[in-house]
Amino acid sequence: MNEGDARRRALVLGLDGVPWERLRAWAAAGELPNFAALIEEGAAGPLASTQPANTALAWPSIATGVRPDKHGIYAFYKLGTNYRHRVNTGEDVSQPALWELVSPSTVVNMPMTYPASPIDGRMVTGMMTPSRDEGFTHPPELAATIADRVPDYEIGLDWNEYRDRPGEFPDALASLVAARRELMNDFLADDWRLFFFVYTAPDRLQHLLWDEEILLDHYKQLDAVLGDAREAAADDDANLFVVSDHGFGPIEKNVHVNRVLADAGYLTPKSDTGTRSTLSRIGLTKERVLGTLDRFEIDVDELAKRLPDALVDRLAAGIPGENVRYDVAYDETTAFVHAQGTLYVNDTERFEQGIVPPGRIDALKTELTDALTRVRDPDTDERVLDVHDGDELFPTDDAAPDLVVEPREGYYVKPSLSETVFSDPGSHAADHRPEGIFLAEGPDIAADATPTDASVFDVAPTVLHSMGAAVPTTVDGRVLDELFAPDSSAAERSIETVDITGSDSGSRSDERTDGEDFSDVEERLRGLGYVE
């Protein structure tokens, strides 16, 4: 083994929301030659996501190799003791990512990386970036370089804009991918040891259009992107890894878990008294207000930007609706779902209006689990929810969700306080599934290798070891050593570990984000179904 082998390069291609079985079927049918080559000649298999299978949790877990209770992200929003929330950013990720451990690194369009951190290399932030004005790149002058080299480059598309004209979305997304591919190839020509580049486009398309022909056309474009990555990795004698944060599948019904809790007496909606009562009687709700503003072509985001936050909160709390942030009487509520299936017991030590004493939490969790797992689809009598204990999923963090509620296939958990338990998903055609993809090829990768029970936590340690870098002792994943060829340098050397301290970024997060305007980000998340 020579020194060059011990400092092997790694190219990681991230593809958001790719379902393993569907990809494998298309590859086997000869539709995706580059994906087929990795499946047939390299290492390939499913990759288990986090629980819940959500972008906000999964990408930081891929980057750090640790569970959410260690990196600190449970949803796109951080829940406060006052039941309000703020947007999580890269500064809330409290463990070091791959690109902080090896250098030089190039990181592009990775979710949850805004604002760009000062790594040894280059970073272009991805999902959750509010604008390209500040914090979009490191070094800062790289933003101007991108605008000059690839003027059509965009962070992402607002899914909301295409709800009423979904037929236009594939072409718009294809243009976005083309520009991203152009930037990828431009950056690949520069110096790097780790190259981590993410395409979120498949996730966006599948949310809106779960159509075989449309999806296959998109995946053919991604296959061409993979072809570029394969060529670059081969030229640089690098190992190539292709990963997705979760899978995808169609949904037939929304399940409003907060309505289940309300019907069972665990959650109390605000009573329509005083002003709320008057507004309720005349049919004035948040939904109607937003609809009226839209008809008069009033930009709600621009309006909200010009009003003080306190006034926006007061108005939202005073107008009846189905928003769990504003329409729940927390002083009479024992449990509630905050975001994508994260359920919190309203305990007295954690929340300002908590009513559940700590000694009652475990028994209440048992009750809640029983109530939620008994929910059945009235049309099929099938069970629709699975419930996981937060202490088991997130054992090192007392502030973690108490339970995680996951939908079974064909259903989607919505946090809104709807009047009914089930509703039609409308234009929300598909959503996340627990099984993504893991593919690899390169000088250290064995032909026809299959990862064993691989999860998103295994990506970081595997990539680090393949590069001859030490693996942090904090990781929860393992090195997938079954992927390495017996005579490769990665297989021959022992796994080196290193003790590291967690990032101090979490302590800086409020200072950096309080003044940021994330209204555009919230609107994009709303379009994807992540917030109400």
Automatic annotation (TrEMBL):
Give the domain of life: Archaea
GO molecular function ontology, one term from the record: hydrolase activity
Pfam families with a match to the protein in the record: Phosphodiest
Q: Which species is this UniProt entry from?
A: Halococcus morrhuae DSM 1307
InterPro entries in the record, alphabetically? Alkaline_phosphatase_core_sf, Phosphodiest/P_Trfase
Region described as Disordered: spans on this chain: 491-532
- This protein is called Type I phosphodiesterase/nucleotide pyrophosphatase
PANTHER family assigned: BIS(5'-ADENOSYL)-TRIPHOSPHATASE, ECTONUCLEOTIDE PYROPHOSPHATASE/PHOSPHODIESTERASE
